[in-house]
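Sequence only, no structure available. Ideas?
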Amino acid sequence: MRVLYITDNQIDLCFVIDRSQSIGADNWKLLLNFVENIVNKLTISNNDTRFALVTFASFGELVFGLDVFNNNTSGLIEAIRSADYYGYGTSIDNGLYTARTECFYKVYIYIYIYIYILYIYNY
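Reply:
I predicted one. Tokens follow.
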């Protein structure tokens, strides 16, 4: 497993979360709690970490972008907690497309984008 260490470098972090019917309402709450725990470990500001959230089911949706909650961790956490669970079908390609076109559309050639997929699977 590769571990990502976040130090003094600025990072733009966009979580892409599955909100389809296959996740279920209970797992949706676990996902949001996971994201909230990550946010609580980071410094949210223009100079440290900027945070965005994309959700997807049958379509991708930008819940909030990178420039919305700079220097406002409590507002960011409230926005994460209030993200809606919808159900419907699963289209991860639409979620990733939304992240690329609405979160990272200003990426310059020398910036690396890492995509990590957290997948919850249980029967």
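Strands lie at 11-18, 49-56, 60-64.
Hope that gets you unstuck.
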